[in-house]
Amino acid sequence: MKLHPLNDINLHQSTNDTYPTALKVAAIAQLRQLERDITALVDAFQAKEKELADIIKVARTQMQDAVLTTLGRQMGAYAEAFARDRWRVYKCEERLRVVNLGGTAIGTGLGAPRKFIFRATEHLRDITGMGLARAENLIDATQNTDPFIEVSGILRAFASNLLKVSNDLRLMSSGPDAGLGEITLPAKQAGSSIMPGKVNPVICEAVGQAAIASSAHDQALMQACSGGNLELNQFMPLIADSLLTMLDLLRNTCTTFTKHCVTGIEGCPKTCAQHVAGATATVTALVDTLGYETAQRIAQTANESGRNIKEVAVELTDLTEAQFDQLVTPEAVTRLGSSQMNHNNRPG
Fold this sequence. Notes:
Elements: H1 5-9, H2 15-51, E1 56-61, E2 64-70, H3 71-92, E3 98-99, H4 114-128, E4 133-134, H5 138-143, H6 146-172, E5 183-184, H7 202-226, H8 236-260, E6 266-267, H9 269-278, H10 287-290, H11 292-305, H12 309-316, H13 321-327, H14 330-333
Helix pairs in contact: 2-3, 2-8, 3-6, 6-7, 6-8, 7-8, 11-12
C-alpha cells in the first residue's frame, strides 16, 4: 500500500492549524513538569524556613540595616513567591487548551469535512489526556497568538523571582569572612586558580544567567507574536523555539537550583548574632517598650562608644539582660504588629 504525503498523511490538514496545535500540546506537557519542579523548589525553601526559624538576623532595606527578622522568615518569603509562580504556571495551562485544529489555512476549515473538524480535537484530547477544546472562532485562533504571550509573561515572572532570590542568596553568603556571611551555600567547585580557598556561588550565578536568558526569549516571543500579518503569523517557528526553549531552560534551572543549592543552604548563627549585637537596627525591637527617643539614645551611645546594643540598653535603662533578651527572641521580632496600642509604663 502506498501513502501519499498530501492526499493521505496530510489529508484535511494545514501547517497553519497543526503547527500551533502541536506547540500547545508540547508546551502543556512542559508546563506540567515545570509545575512539579517549582513545587519541589517551594518544598525546599519551606524546609529551610523551619530549619532556620530560630536564627535572628538583621533585615535590610535599600541595602541598609533596618530591623530584626529571622533567616527562617526570609526563606519563608522566598517559598511564598515561588508558590505563586507554581499557581500561575498551573493556571496558565488553560490559556493553551483552546486549539485551532481543523481550521486548515486561515480558520475557515477549507478542504476539511465538517465531521473531521469536530472529531479531530476530540481524538487529540483522547490520545494526549489533555483537556483540549476546539476554538469557537477558528479564524481568530489561527491568526492571533496572544495566548503564547500570556504564558510567556507568566514564565518571565518566574524568571524574575529566580533572579531576585539567587542574587539575595549570593549577598547573604558573601564573604564569608569580610561579607555578610549569614548563610553558606554548597561548595560545587574551586573558585580561583589564584586565590586559594575561594569558593564562588556558581549555582546562584547560573540561575541568574538562565533567568536573564529566559527574559530574552520572552522578548523575542513578544516581538514574534505581535509581528504576524493579517490571517497568519509567519513567525510561528520563532514563537515555538522561544517558548519551548524558555520552558526547557526554566525546568532545568529550577531543578538545579533546588538540588544543588537550596537544599544545602546552612545558616551561620554565630555571624548573624554578631551582626545583631552590633547593629543599631536592634534598637527598633526596643521602641515599643522604651520609646523612640530612648532607643535612639541607646543607638547613638552604642555607635559613639563602640559597645554593643545590649550592654548600653541595660546601662541606660531599667531593662535587665533577661528582659532585653526577651525583646529580641525569634518570636518577638517576627510577631505581627505590636501587642500594645501605646507606650505606657516604659522602664528607663
